[in-house]
Task: structure prediction
Amino acid sequence: MSNGFNGIDKNKAHEKAVALIPETFFWSSIDDLAPFGSDEGYTALVEYREWRMTHPDCPTLECLQWVIESVGEMTFADYNENLLSPQLIAEQIADDDFDDQQYIYTLDVSIIATGFGQLVDEGNIDAANKRIIRIAVERQLVWSGLQQGWTYATDYIANLEVLRRVLEQA
Result:
């Protein structure tokens, strides 16, 4: 990006985002359990910022649609509450032909980073985006709870609960 600010930096964030999110994990650029700390979250934040620079007057929902269609390889309409079924998610995890790392984890983290990127940069999350971001957070809560033996599940779920709270307040 031309302004040199690619990753998350609390010192350059909108004051409303800083006030809403005092938790240190959120502002980490190296914590894989943070919205912008994983490679996927960092990439999504950078791509959101690049998109926003070239589409300053477009609704940010269009960026989320682009993320869903490109990362998730699915239609925007198919990214809905039906994806939150614990049974469906468990079946997808168990299916060797379904890449849950890509189509659940990477997609949802990309949506979360894109949505919260707007909060960090602009101090708000467009109301039209909240449903989509909420689906991503909720699906990550289910998905992470189904990861057998994942050492960091409890920490990740706690972080997601913070994101859920902030999403309601933003």
About this structure: Residues 87 and 129 are 26 Å apart (CA to CA).
